[in-house]
Amino acid sequence: MIKDSIQFGSKTIDFQLTFSDRKSLGITVTPEMEVLVKAPVNVTLDKVKKKLKDKAPWILKQQSFFLPFHPKTSAKKYVSGESHLYLGRQYRLKVSEGKTNEVKLKGKFIEVICPENANPEELLRKWYLEHARARFSQYAKPWIERFKQYQVEPSSIVLREMPTRWGSCTPKGKIILNPDLIKAPKGCIEYVIIHELCHLVHRDHTQTFFELQAKELPEWEKWKMRLEVLLA
């Protein structure tokens, strides 16, 4: 494998190149925004770079599409006064000392009550996970029913922390959602759910995939942008 890059305007596009016994050059942009190039063994590196420059606008567009699926929330210290998101709204964190472990919404605050030696971060993450499990199931249920018209249904929906993804769909039909999505508005969560349900019908990001996504969620671009801006 060869790792190299090209320059397109002010943008640097890194790529990974492999040669194989094939007739044409193929370019893939992965959900991790990696650019993978497969080329015939007789193609020179200069020709590969020329092809990449020709396709640069498409590559950057694909990377931009996957960008909101990459969590970018800044590191927190989990101390009183910090701002934390829940379902798209900003709340102030209030850490109070108490005899029990408890997290609750109280007005404009997310209040964490715990003993002095407890870990507020761990308690809050557990609280987020519990709410994500309940909300995601609630939001996904009507969409799963709707997508049965396309003769598809996820084998399961599971939550898993993913440092570079908001959601994914396995070849066997399991939809995986990042619990950190609970910090985004309902529309953003539904957008990711619908996006992965569309993958049960069309595995790749083809024109038919986007047509289906637009049919089911006409405002998907608005929610995509909202997710990108809110959790940047």
UniProtKB/TrEMBL annotation:
Pfam families in the cross-refs: YgjP-like (PF01863)
Lineage of the organism: Bacteria, Pseudomonadati, Bacteroidota, Cytophagia, Cytophagales
KW Hydrolase (keyword) present: yes
Record-given protein name: Metal-dependent hydrolase
Superkingdom classification of source: Bacteria
Keyword Hydrolase among record annotations: yes
GO molecular function, one term: hydrolase activity
This protein's UniProt keywords: Hydrolase
Domain YgjP-like metallopeptidase: 23-228
Species: Adhaeribacter aerolatus
Alphabetical list of InterPro entries matching this protein: UTP_pyrophosphatase-like, YgjP-like_metallopeptidase
